[in-house]
Each structure stands twice: as structure tokens, then as C-alpha cells.
Design a protein that fits this description.
Oligomer: single chain
Helix content: 25-40%
Radius of gyration: 19 Å
Order of helices and strands: EEHEEHEHEEEHEHEE
Number of strands: 11
Distance between the termini: 47 Å
Structural class: alpha/beta
Largest sheet: 7 strands, mixed
């Protein structure tokens, strides 16, 4: 039907792992290349699970903005920076989601986020727009002053608050926003250390809000 949309999962070598029918991923249409479409058509033929729509102009494969045509295991630093540029060209806000897993509530809040996650064993690994580093290391991936917003929907207190604050401030543009949700034991101590480090790295103290020790917002 016209409502059929598909996602193709690849391994790092480019082999097709699966063709799925769901909408939880989002990749910019500009990121879809001709070879991706060819590989999709080939995969459909090999798997024998799907059919493609025939039209007078030939075979057409339909995509939605929110559906990934290609999901690699993770983005290299260069690919991550290229995605930042692509988002800018699309006129979109550039959001880095620390610990992001592309859960439904995350996609709803930040539909085109770049997910920074070192993916510990047992956690979801098929994450779109994934950069496999911890949030404390994101300044080794993204250029200074290149990100509009750094967010986290559930960051554990095991993350180093001072290092995370430093990396966050480095990558954020002037006027960039911070929105960090915290969980785990010792959230009050963690929150204080994180806020102190934000101020030390140049974030105006008057812009910082600590809501119940579990949500910190600020503006660079």
C-alpha cells in the first residue's frame, strides 16, 4: 500500500542484515545516495520479502524523512561533522543527544539528533546517527562552536560531570542550549559538580536552572 515504508540494516562491510518495516529511525533524505537505492533494490530481490512499486519511469523506492535508508554501526568523526553540515544546509537545529538511543520519546523531542553513545553491552546498538564515544569525548568529534543544543534524556551519574560540562561548552555555539536529565545515586552531588564546571567553562550562572536536581538547563 501507499503506507508501506521500509528500513534496510547494513553491517559495517555493507552486507544487508535485514529489511524491516518501521518508522523509528530518521536520516536526512540528502544522506541517501544512489548506491543505497541500488543496494536496497538488490536486497529486496535477495531477501524475497518485499516487492517494489513499478511505474512508467521504472522502479521507484519510497522513503519518508523519518525512515533510514542506511544504518551503519556508527559514524566516524568525519561523517559526524559532515552530518552537522548537512543538517545546517537543511536549515535544521543541530542537536547532540548524549547517551541517545533513538527511543520514541527522544525522537519526538529531537527528531534529527546525533546520538553520542559508547553503547555498553546489553543496550540497543542499532541506533541511527550514532557516534560511538562517551559524552565526555564529544569535543574530540565535533568542532568548537558547531552545535546548537546538547541534550540527554537519561544520563547516569557514572558519567564524569566536569568532563561532560567541559566538552559540552566547547562544542556549543554561543547561545547554544543545554538540557540534561540525570538519574542514579548521588544526583544532587553530580548536579552541583556539573553546574560548577559549566560556570568554570564560561556558562553564565544566571542562565542555569537546576530543577529538582534531575534536570539542568542552561545557555552558553
Amino acid at each position: 500500500t501507499m503506507d508501506d515504508w521500509y528500513t534496510v540494516l547494513f553491517d559495517p562491510e555493507g552486507s544487508i542484515l535485514a529489511v524491516l518495516s518501521f518508522e523509528s529511525y530518521n536520516i536526512l533524505p540528502s544522506a541517501i545516495q544512489a548506491d543505497d537505492i541500488l543496494l536496497l533494490i538488490t536486497g529486496i530481490g535477495l531477501l524475497g520479502k518485499l516487492s517494489v512499486r513499478l511505474a512508467a519511469s521504472g522502479i521507484k523506492v519510497l522513503f519518508r524523512t523519518r525512515v533510514a535508508a542506511k544504518i551503519a554501526s556508527h559514524l566516524s568523526p568525519g561523517q559526524a561533522r559532515a552530518l552537522v553540515s548537512a543538517l545546517r544546509k537543511e536549515g535544521r537545529e543541530v542537536v547532540v543527544n548524549v547517551g541517545g538511543e533513538a527511543a520514541k520519546h527522544e525522537i519526538k523531542a529531537w527528531s534529527h539528533a546525533i546520538n553520542v553513545n559508547n553503547v555498553t553491552p546489553g543496550r540497543p546498538a542499532d541506533i541511527p546517527n550514532l557516534v560511538k564515544v562517551g559524552g565526555e569525548e564529544m569535543d574530540s568529534v565535533f568542532l568548537p562552536n558547531s552545535i546548537d543544543k546538547v541534550v540527554a534524556s537519561k544520563i547516569p551519574t557514572s558519567v564524569d560531570p566536569q568532563r561532560l560540562a567541559q566538552a559540552t561548552v566547547r562544542v556549543l555555539k554561543k547561545g547554544g542550549r543545554i538540557e540534561i536529565n540525570i538519574f542514579g545515586s548521588g544526583v544532587d552531588t553530580w548536579s552541583k559538580k556539573f553546574i560548577d564546571a559549566l560556570v568554570k567553562n564560561g556558562v553564565p550562572s544566571l542562565s542555569i536552572k537546576n530543577i529538582g536536581e534531575v534536570l539542568i538547563t542552561a545557555t552558553k
